Amino acid sequence: MDKEERKTINQGQEDEMEIYGYNLSRWKIAIVSLGVICTGGFLLLLLYWMPEWRVKATCIRAAIKDCEVVLLRTTDEFRVWFCAKIRLLSLETHPFLSPKSTANKVSNGHAVHLIENPAEENRHELSKYPQTQLQQIRYFTHHSVKYFWNDTIHNFDFLKGLDEGVSCTSIYEKHSAGLTKGMHAYRKLLYGVNEITVKVPSVFKLLIKEVLNPFYIFQLFSVILWCTDEYYYYALAIVIMSIVSIVSSLYSIRKQYVMLHDMVAAHSTVRVSVCRVNEEIEEIFSTDLVPGDIMVIPLNGTIMPCDAVLINGTCIVNESMLTGESVPVTKTNLPNPSVDIKGMGDELYNPETHKRHTLFCGTTVIQTRFYTGELVKAVVVRTGFSTSKGQLVRSILYPKPTDFKLYRDAYLFLLCLVAVAGIGFVYTIINSILNEVEVGVIIIESLDIITITVPPALPAAMTAGIVYAQRRLKKIGIFCISPQRINICGQLNLVCFDKTGTLTEDGLDLWGIQRVENAQFLLPEENVCNAMLVKSQFVACMATCHSLTKIGGVLSGDPLDLKMFEAIGWILEEATEEETALHNRIMPTVVRPPKQLLPESIPTGNQEMELFELPAVYEIGIVRQFPFSSALQRMSVVARVLGDKKMDAYMKGAPEIIASLCKPETVPVDFEKVLEDFTKQGFRVIALAHRKLESKLTWHKVQNISRDTIENNMDFMGLIIMQNKLKQETPAVLEDLHKANIRTVMVTGDNMLTAVSVARDCGMILPQDKVIIAEALPPKDGKVAKINWHYADSLTQCSNSSAINSEAIPIKLVHESLEDLQVTRYHFAMNGKSFSVILEHFQDLVPKLMLHGTVYARMAPDQKTQLVEALQNVDYFVGMCGDGANDCGALKRAHGGISLSELEASVASPFTSKTPSISCVPNLIREGRAALITSFCVFKFMALYSIIQYFSVTLLYSILSNLGDFQFLFIDLAIILVVVFTMSLNPAWKELVAQRPPSGLISGALLFSVLSQIIICIGFQSLGFFWVKQQPWYEMWHPHSDACNTTRSLRWNSSHPYNETELDEHNIQNYENTTVFFISSFQYLIVAIAFSKGKPFRQPCYKNYFFVVSVIILYVFVLFIMLHPVASIDQVLQIVCVPYQWRVTMLIIVLVNAFVSITVENFFLDMVLWKVVFNRDKQGEYRFGTTQPPQASVDRWGKCCLSWALRCRKKIPKAKYMYLAQELLVDPEWPPKPQTTTEAKALVKENGSCQIITIT
């Protein structure tokens, strides 16, 4: 086998990885060991940080089949490396398996079909190796998943359960009998213990992992260096800071582990009953369950310890942990295709497709309905981390790295500081050699310059802003589980909203019904609860076609079903356990109208007669239920009226779907028009249908019939019209987002026209805006895929124009600010089916549609995720706001996902709002922007602090001096830490503005800001340093120097009791040092004020009281010790006496420095460069056909001049969507004209390209 082989595991999945094989090499290990000793352990640290280097340095390449170590690399944009050790699973200790059986199962690596009978063994005979070679299986574990060697595919593959490659037929035929104890033991050996273990690491383990962080290693190096240079106080301060940082970090990490452990431990170990092959019921621990076990669901319910598919009975389940909906869901047994009339034996079981028959791990079974003598049984399909809950926990334990420009730029910036430190390092060595300094001092001082340039407090300072933002979000009821995402939320420029429960009220009110008789609509009726309709099929459908159940005597279920059932006023009765036990079949749920609605044919006084008239009582039993499926957009039931021979089938769902399954002659001619009228008004419309079933259909046959057999050839009965009101705050929030140039998009499972109507009502689509509906049709009968373009409604027509002409086509716009609202804009709307067709056949149209797509209706959960990805592909920063139901995938995929559900499903979403209102969206963006700007401010300040101190030390090194220990301490602790942690406290600005903050540090404005301040600070520091030498009183300082006498100030000198024997070894005390110390101390405070930006993203810095007070105290203190020296302070800080005139001169230097710094930062940079030269690419940057205010024309003039002078502006925008918008401006065919069709060209020639053909 080729030793350089590279294979891929998890191909096509999210966690796809490349895999390489390696064997340990003794000579390489010996060389590395020697290197570790020579480098004092640093090489070991480097190899600990870099798995790829570690494996390559100690191993040699080998064939994957025979390797001892595997090296893994993710195939996504992050290309992260991992390594894992190959382990062996021995099977020699299991004599109950025949050699042949063992050989087959082991060589197969993962038993997809979990072989258990000879016929299947023969079919899966995949290896001819002797038995002795097959006693051990090779595997490795990565991210809690075991990967076994599979000889069939010559690669490692994870062990699958019954969730892949198993047909529904085989679940009944091969897996419904249970396992033998021997087979159970064998599978347990392979699958391991059924538990989702979140091990809480010991404090010691966490401590070692935290301490070995490169940053803390650098700090350790700095502390050792400072101790050798006798900077004990500063070293001690840094050690204390590091300990506080490590302890707080350990506390928060351990707290998260404990929280996750507690959440997962809910079902860790329970006792469960399983059926064995001989019908024997055995009680085992849930940790011993394996795929293929038959689990008996207890009557009083349980928390599911695994994923299992129901094969007997019905369960009521609370799935809030997974979906975010606390509404109980009815789970029915998996249809058995072998006894089905149509026979769909080839259908493969899939937990997602068959989720209405699957009990998921972690969900709560509230109650069961069962057959007498036949328990409610489920076949275990997945265990441990393979389950749905296990996958959710894995995504939390091993999250994808957050890719954000700010963090990438931060590393680049650090590299730049390291480069600057390198220059200082070389300069110090050369300068010291030229001045014949001792070798030991040269080493210490040159290394010291590196510790000065890369500030040890940087990471703590960077996270301060995020921590404060997280606290402020918590105060307004927004909880965050991924703090790093707060910064990313500051960049959001598009937000997708779910409709029901997010933009509109969660509940629906019944507005009325519109029945159909003789294929004609009757007039709408408001009151359904009346004696006239009580025995009609329409009301019978409303009474039976739902998934309601009684829990604790209270009706519960889908809110829509509840509203419908409450509207008719019927009573629902479910069989008790005792009643069920008396019959040899499952007792149906019975619904009946209240007595007052039924026509009374018997005298009311004769109570006894009433008992004998029981058959006349009108009751309907629900015999079989086909639950609502979002993929099918409908649900149906089979019911029987008490006393009737024939059963009835009732169906309800999306009107378009229901009408297509009805006899055409029963659907009114004006069906589409009536439906359109209702949906345009924003009503939610549900259609009902009915048909009588054949008398030959017995109760048992109905239990096994497929829904396709039932759901066709129906009679259309009419429409139920539900009103879904907008939430009170929705229009105002959307208006705020539009003002801030943040696009809003609606993603809903509702009807297209209803969604468009709601979009207009809430202001997402303005009254004068055009809506273009893209109706895409897949290829059919040899014809290519095509898109029909319809205009949903035209502008107010002029009296003389009867048709839409070319003038009515909307003007193309990119700018979305308020000043352009008078120009007609256009929006695309499409449904889920069209979206899928466009994604598959019109790839080049997708980005164009993303630019103006506003309404996406009838979207399935996976389509919502695909939409978020498509928007991200054109460089939008996408936010997603949903109520948790069906939105989990999109919430996780978006840059900022906000769940309005407080349930455990919010674990999948980075943010959760306590109040179910979209007002959390602008709040989150405001806080994100504030946190982002705070991060920039802090980073710029820390960069300036490093450079100022670096330059101070470099200047002093030139005269073989340095800053004193307490000078460093005062600067780093009293000034820097206090300023950094208080400047981060600025709250967010009270409203969203149209301007957006930059996304990275490497942007023109920010670089100019930092560089200009560096030049100013270096300039004024140099001025002080060289000017002091020109003073008439200047001399090389010594303990008897008396410069103060030149200003008749004898007091200072006499108060200093210097000991003549006390020598200043480091030459700290001199006039240059004192000058540089005072000027630099003020410079730190000056840049702190210059960089502490307020409006438009944060509150002004004068409202940050802690910062203001801190800065004032520091200013007063430094000013006081400069102008009015205090002997004890000067002695501690090693400051020397300088004439009062020079003190005033330093004050003037500082004041001029402050004026220049603040003028350049706040006026020149903000008012000229930020707006003119470095105006970032954002939606709304280009203006067309609008009148500009006077200031805009000045800006335009300035822009032209500066762009010409500096040549630093590119015409092509960075963001793809902006570039695309520019292209579309000159495209005469865009937007598509009304009543035109776009057809896909043959895929052979041009993949996904299309042409527009106008249909006349």
TrEMBL record:
CDD domains: P-type_ATPase_cation. It is found in: Early endosome membrane; Late endosome membrane; Recycling endosome membrane. Residues 272-396 form the P-type ATPase A domain. One of its GO terms (biological process) is intracellular calcium ion homeostasis. ATP-driven pump involved in endocytosis-dependent polyamine transport. Uses ATP as an energy source to transfer polyamine precursor putrescine from the endosomal compartment to the cytosol. GO terms for molecular function: ABC-type putrescine transporter activity; ATP binding; ATP hydrolysis activity; ATPase-coupled monoatomic cation transmembrane transporter activity; metal ion binding; P-type ion transporter activity. Residues 176-226 form the Cation-transporting P-type ATPase N-terminal domain. It is an enzyme of class 7 (translocase). This is Polyamine-transporting ATPase 13A3. The chain crosses the membrane at residues 27-49, 232-253, 410-430, 450-469, 936-960, 966-989, 1001-1028, 1074-1092, 1104-1124, 1144-1169. It comes from Microcebus murinus (Gray mouse lemur). Keywords: ATP-binding, Endosome, Magnesium, Membrane, Metal-binding, Nucleotide-binding, Phosphoprotein, Translocase, Transmembrane, Transmembrane helix. Coiled coil: none annotated. The keyword Oxidoreductase does not apply. It is a multi-pass membrane protein. Residues 13-150 form the P5B-type ATPase N-terminal domain. Belongs to the cation transport ATPase (P-type) (TC 3.A.3) family. Type V subfamily. It catalyses: putrescine(out) + ATP + H2O = putrescine(in) + ADP + phosphate + H(+). Its EC number is 7.6.2.16. GO terms for cellular component: early endosome membrane; late endosome membrane; recycling endosome membrane. It comes from the Eukaryota.
